[in-house]
Design a protein that fits this description.
heterodimer; A: 440 residues; mainly alpha; B: 184 residues; 0% strand
């Protein structure tokens, strides 16, 4: 008779093998989770769990915010908000050296404030900003690199699909998590701008100045971007202020974005249909992975694998800080292989017990926030690192004349700035924790 | 396969079947999307009403839970047929088309198998819910009402897996006549 831990390890290996031969991650998790539970507890248990588990997983109220934010982002991508944001960013920063790239970053951050997905932010902003950056003769690598990196702001600035999923897995409050993400998100915008400033200084000619705009255009562009701030203020501000829960807030957001789009005649029915189909595809795959995660985590905890990982790392003699750095390194490697959501869902159940059992001088609630924000930043780095870097692929599909290698090269300065930011977040937990503490 | 089918009326209907099987998941997902939009309007309205008049719609919590679950089920076949479920392609990128088609076939088989398994268990689950009648707290809607649409979704997921599987077999066949020496 095999020991449970051996079954668990074999199950993990089988799941990775399935994933390697391109079985969708969700299916692999469901299959191995169900098979594993029936090996340990007998098929009866898992069969009776399957009667209700899909419904109970999908009907989690806290999770219902996810499809609504996805729909909000899908509508926002089609209602020209990205154009407004870019225009304002250009009016504010365009005359600086590298200004148009900085404007792109600001616009990405603004778009991230109404959209919770990196890929949507990268592709939407890319369509708007790339032609302009190329027109002003920006170095191709700087142009595509800025957009690929800027796209990650979709996730780093709340609302954030990744944070919602993390909150569900780790059973923490989405509101405080969104609050914790705000300052680090703004910091990311700032760091990206500084990165561009340094880049154009070291490589003169890579980011020429744009023409200064008239005071009239400055005013018009600033007014044009007010709806974005208003929507963010009502949705995220309302959540922070406790006016309503995240789900109604997201619903109000969907309504406002649609109202704005239809009011300005930028949205037509076709856009709504496309947005719904995009939402179906995105929300469908995320929920299915979460169903897989529910089964897999039952299997793993019955097999004792997370406990064994925690014991092993706790007994390894490494300091808590070293263990955190090790986990960050593992995430960076995983990020080269899979998308951020799958990664968070797969890895968090193993790593969180390790972190929770160590002393970082924080309460459990604070630890959840701090570790969550750090995880968010490192998994997002996977979107811009070779070989998979999804954002890089998206931007490259928009700029076909720029070789992929150039884009990865252009992303490297931003990668470096993100490493600096992670180091700061690790060293100063107060950065993510300040706003949640102040709000409570 | 096409050549040994009977010609005439019957075959025309038969020929339409694949396109129907492809369109079904999309239409079904859009129906789920409409459910989602209805939930958006209801919960936004309820929150605003609560804010202004301290009068929320009491059933919004239960209905959102229930309705989102139904909507998500309707999305699953569309995810399968549009290859929306994320995979890790990096390890197998350099493999030949035939190997990729084989892997796609494996995925479709797994999807079809899971659809059957989940259909059977959720069918039994529905019977349980109907027997021990459980209703929502705020409004007397029985919980089993989520299961019929979920079962239709799983049946469509099975159909979608057949379609993606047929595409994969098509990929295998396309390769077959020109068998490269490396494969022999």
């Amino acid at each position: 008779m095999l020991s449970n831990i051996a079954i668990g390890t074999a199950g993990l290996a089988a799941m990775l093998a399935l994933i390697v031969v391109r079985v969708p991650i969700a299916y692999a998790m469901i299959l191995v989770g169900a098979a594993g539970i029936s090996l340990i507890d007998g098929p009866r248990i898992v069969m009776s769990q399957l009667k209700n588990l899909p419904y109970s997983t999908f009907s989690n109220y806290d999770l219902s915010v996810l499809p609504m934010f996805v729909l909000m982002g899908a509508l926002a991508s089609r209602s020209g908000l990205s154009r407004d944001l870019f225009r304002a960013g250009n009016a504010w920063l365009g005359r600086l050296r590298g200004g148009l790239a900085m404007a792109t970053v600001v616009a990405c951050g603004g778009f991230g404030a109404v959209c919770g997905s990196s890929l949507a932010t990268a592709s939407t902003m890319g369509q708007v900003a790339l032609p302009e950056l190329r027109r002003l003769n920006y170095a191709p690598s700087l142009a595509t690199g800025t957009l690929a990196a800027g796209g990650t702001l979709g996730i780093l600035v709340p609302p954030s699909v990744v944070l919602i999923v993390y909150a569900i897995i780790i059973e923490t409050n989405i509101v405080t998590l969104f609050a914790a993400a705000l300052l680090p998100g703004l910091l990311a915008v700032l760091f990206f701008i500084v990165t561009i400033a340094i880049y154009v200084r070291l490589r003169p000619g890579s980011g020429p100045r744009g023409e200064a705009v008239s005071p009239h255009e400055l005013r018009a562009a600033t007014i044009g971007v007010l709806p974005v701030f208003l929507i963010f203020g009502i949705v995220i501000g309302g959540i922070y202020g406790g006016l309503y829960n995240p789900t109604p807030a997201a619903a109000i957001g969907v309504f406002l974005v649609a109202l704005h789009g239809f009011g300005l005649r930028r949205l037509v029915l076709r856009d709504v249909v496309d947005s719904l189909l995009e939402t179906a595809r995105t929300a469908g795959f995320i929920y299915l992975i979460l169903l897989g995660a529910a089964l897999l985590s039952i299997f793993m905890s019955r097999a004792g694998v997370p406990q064994a990982v925690a014991e092993f790392l706790h007994g390894s003699g490494l300091s808590p800080l070293m263990i955190l750095v090790l986990i960050i390194a593992i995430y960076l490697v995983l990020g080269c292989l899979m998308d951020s959501l799958s990664m968070i869902i797969l890895a968090t159940p193993f790593f969180w017990p390790v972190i929770a059992g160590l002393d970082y001088g924080l309460s459990v609630d604070d630890l959840k926030l701090w570790y969550g924000i750090i995880t968010l930043v490192v998994v997002e780095l996977g979107l811009i690192t070779p070989p998979v870097g999804l954002n890089v692929f998206i931007i490259n599909s928009l700029a076909r004349d720029v070789p992929m290698r150039e884009t990865f090269k252009g992303v490297m300065p931003f990668f470096a700035s993100e490493i600096v930011r992670v180091t700061l977040l690790v060293a100063f937990p107060a950065i993510p924790l300040a706003l949640p503490h102040w709000l409570s | 396969m096409a050549e040994d089918r009977p010609s005439g009326h019957e075959s025309a209907a038969w020929a339409r079947l694949p396109s129907l099987a492809r369109a079904g998941p999309k239409v079904w997902a859009l129906i789920g999307g409409i459910v989602l939009v209805a939930l958006v309007l209801m919960t936004a309205g309820s929150a605003v009403s609560n804010l202004l008049f301290h009068r929320p719609y009491v059933a919004d919590y239960d209905l959102v839970k229930h309705g989102v679950a139904i909507a998500i089920f309707t999305f699953l076949p569309y995810c399968e047929i549009t290859h929306g479920n994320v995979t890790v392609d990096i390890f197998t990128e350099r493999m030949g088309d035939r190997a990729k088609a084989l892997m796609a076939l494996l995925s479709s088989l797994v999807a079809a198998g899971l659809a059957v398994l989940l259909f059977r268990q959720m069918w039994l689950g529905m019977l349980d819910y109907m027997e021990y009648r459980e209703v929502m707290i705020s409004i007397p809607i029985p919980l089993w009402t989520a299961f019929p649409p979920a079962l239709v979704s799983l049946a469509l997921l099975f159909v979608a897996a057949l379609v993606t599987g047929a595409d994969a077999i098509g990929g295998l066949r396309a390769e077959a006549p020109g068998l490269r020496p490396t494969l022999g």
